Amino acid sequence: MNPPTSGTPPERGPSGPPEPAAARRARLLAAAEPAELVPVAERLLDGGALGTPRVIHPPEVGMVMLQVREPVAEERFYLGEVLVTHCTVEVAGATGWSMRGGDDRVAALAAALLDAAASAGLPEAGRVEEVCAAVAARRAAQDAAEWAALVPTIVEFEELL
Fold first, then answer.
1. Beta-carbon neighbour count of residue 10 at 10 Å?
2. Three-state secondary-structure class, residue 115
3. Which H or E run includes 75?
4. Which end of the chain is more exposed for a tag (fewer CB within 10 A), N or C?
5. Cβ-based neighbours of 38, under 8 Å, separated by 6 or more
6. pLDDT of 7-50, one tens digit each?
7. Global pTM?
């Protein structure tokens, strides 16, 4: 794979089936800032859009092993432990789940509520998609900026025939 020259990340080859919508949503809600999650969850709760949510597993702080893949041999190994907060709720018969890095219980609960609202297909699920789209756009811009900073360091070698 050639390094990018336009400041965009390289194309990746097929690495399996497409990411399911629920997995994409969980990944983006985990990366969202608390200020993006909490106000939306509060508006949904205050407006009664979520009905009476049931907390199945309250926000709990714990440690999980961080597994990474070495890029050359593609071997997986455990790098260490990371602090996470996870939570599970039920809204309108749909389960919402969240696991976020750090110890912010409020943000984990808000993310789980948003996930449940989207899973239940409530009309307010559009707000959840707006949050996810904003996070995806921000992450894409950050990735593009990182690649743009790396482009000047690329060394091009001439091929001898």
1. 10
2. helix
3. none
4. C
5. 106, 107, 110
6. 434 333 345 678 888 999 999 999 999 999 999 999 888 888 77
7. 0.79
